[in-house]
Specification:
By secondary structure, this protein is an alpha/beta fold. The protein folds into two domains: about 5-75, no CATH class; about 85-230 and about 250-305, Vaccinia Virus protein VP39 (Rossmann fold, 3-Layer(aba) Sandwich), CATH 3.40.50. It is about 45% helix and about 15% strand. The chain has twelve helices and seven strands. Strands 3-2-1-4-5-7-6 form a seven-stranded mixed β-sheet, sandwiched between helices. Helix 3 (about 40-50) packs across helix 5 (about 65-75).
Length: about 300
């Protein structure tokens, strides 16, 4: 399997989480497993590719190879996967204390929660949902460092473009519609059309009990306009170059209406400044030479089914 066959966004996200955990004492998000998901060759190849792209990311930058990689990781690669993962898992822990029993990682990619779960997660049934290729690849990687899989984990291959999530769940023996669920949709809203994202939300509403939670990040209405920050523009260009073009962006009012149409109410909404203050501040104080900020045009949303 070569690099071109894999999801580059999933690989780069895992690389960013590994690099951050490996090179920092004060961490925004500590993913102790991401480095085991990736091979040494993948780490080297991604590092080489990123360093060679400094002219695209920051034409005026001057530094050593390691300084170059660190700048790209901290400024371009890490903010999104670190911030949203820290936020989502904090919200999941709160939800678990209030009765959530099922955790769905939709388009799981190389997410590692199930393999480093804390004791509080032991009563959760964890579902990793992704296409068959990614799910199979993920399982092969995990088998390379785990002898026994977590007992509370269910792999659920699904083609969201062709299969209904709610129908898939109804045929799953470990799913219980009467239990409160928590759905993580991180990194999805960018790559689905508005119609397809709405269909996914409808499917979740159809399968989830009242009081269930969804969390997701989404690009605001300025992401593809002149008002967008340079990082956001370059992120969109990089994704498109990897064959994973970003397709949609939303105003707050539009997202609020979309969620309402799908039977969800917004419970928490974070803007970039709020994300930076809440999740990056401690790290930035400890690393004034490596300041990290949330992307200008990305918001986090937690909504609850009515």
């Amino acid at each position: 399997m070569n690099m071109e066959q894999k999801s580059m966004t999933a690989l780069i996200s895992a690389f960013a989480r590994w690099y951050h955990a490996e090179h920092n004492d004060v961490k925004i998000f500590d993913d102790s497993i991401a480095g085991k998901i990736l091979s040494d060759d993948e780490k080297r190849q991604i590092a080489v590719n990123m360093r060679s792209g400094i002219g695209f990311f920051n034409p005026l930058f001057s530094g050593t190879e390691e300084e170059t990689l660190r700048w790209i990781v901290d400024n371009q690669l890490s903010p999104s996967p670190l911030g949203r993962s820290a936020w989502a898992e904090k919200a999941l822990q709160t939800a678990a204390k209030t009765g959530v029993k099922q955790y769905f990682i939709v388009v799981a990619g190389y997410d590692t929660f199930a393999y480093r779960q804390s004791a509080w997660a032991s009563e959760l049934r964890i579902f990793e949902m992704d296409n068959l290729f990614m799910s199979t690849d993920k399982q092969k990687r995990v088998q390379g460092f785990l002898d026994v899989l977590p007992e509370n984990l269910t792999y659920m291959p699904i083609n969201l473009a062709a299969e209904s999530l709610s129908e898939k769940l109804r045929s799953c023996g470990t799913f219980n519609k009467n239990k409160l669920s928590f759905y993580s949709l991180l990194g999805i809203a960018y790559y689905l059309s508005k119609e397809n994202f709405k269909t996914l939300l409808y499917d979740i509403a159809d399968s989830a009990s009242n009081g269930s939670t969804i969390v997701f990040d989404y690009p605001d209405e300025h992401t593809y306009m002149e008002q967008a920050g340079e990082r956001a523009k370059k992120q969109a260009m990089m994704a498109q170059g990897a064959g994973e073009a970003m397709l949609a962006s939303y105003s707050y009012a539009e997202m609020e209406q979309l969620l309402s149409d799908c039977e969800f109410l917004i419970y928490e909404h974070l803007t970039p400044d709020q994300i930076t203050k809440q999740f990056f501040e401690e790290y930035n104080i400890a690393n004034p030479q490596y300041i990290m900020t949330a992307f200008d045009n990305t918001n986090y949303c937690l909504a609850v089914k009515k």
